[in-house]
Amino acid sequence: MASLKRFYLFFLVLSGSVLFTSGAQASFTATVLDGYNTLSNNIAQTWHSPEHYELYVPAITWHARFAYDKEKTDRYNERPWGAGFGQSRWDEKGNWHGLYLMAFKDSYNKWEPIGGYGWEKTWRPLTDDNFHLGLGYTVGVTARDNWHYIPVPLVLPLASIGYGPATFQMTYIPGTYNNGNVYFAWMRFQF
């Protein structure tokens, strides 16, 4: 009788684990699918219904000095000459959505293309609605000379400060010692 009770207890614990795992897995899958659907809908809506076109002008690339040997940073290019073009829209909550293509001179002074979708939650903390702050993300693809121009997917944070049609937008590329850890910023002009 005791072994039968142990069997039932083992069976209940195992069944509960399987049910919990299945429920958690289904919830996780549903969350991922909801996120994917929201992202793809926002991209499609920005593509088909742009409110503005934008000019992108790279401004600065800064390699975090705490994460690099000085001889490397002395050789790196931190003036990312280039340009880009995009289209954007503001949603009903006042948040920014943008699609962009940009090319600029990378750390090795070689051309680096980048393209993708960006989203920022936008705040207008002053009574003047022209001033805005933003935090969000970008998903896209880049390619670099030192990686033989193999397309590399990316997900990076975005932050911005703007007034009217001019916005200073930035990201940080995380990394390891002597790799990554780069602050990259550009101007974005809507027209």
TrEMBL record:
One of its GO terms (cellular component) is cell outer membrane. Its main location: membrane. GO terms for biological process: lipid A biosynthetic process. The active site is at H63, D106, S107. Its EC number is 2.3.1.251. The keyword RNA-binding does not apply. The record marks K72 as: Role in lipopolysaccharide recognition. The keyword Magnesium does not apply. HAMAP family: PagP_transferase. Belongs to the lipid A palmitoyltransferase family. Homodimer. Transfers a fatty acid residue from the sn-1 position of a phospholipid to the N-linked hydroxyfatty acid chain on the proximal unit of lipid A or its precursors. This is Lipid A acyltransferase PagP. It comes from Trabulsiella odontotermitis. The lineage of its organism: Bacteria, Pseudomonadati, Pseudomonadota, Gammaproteobacteria, Enterobacterales.
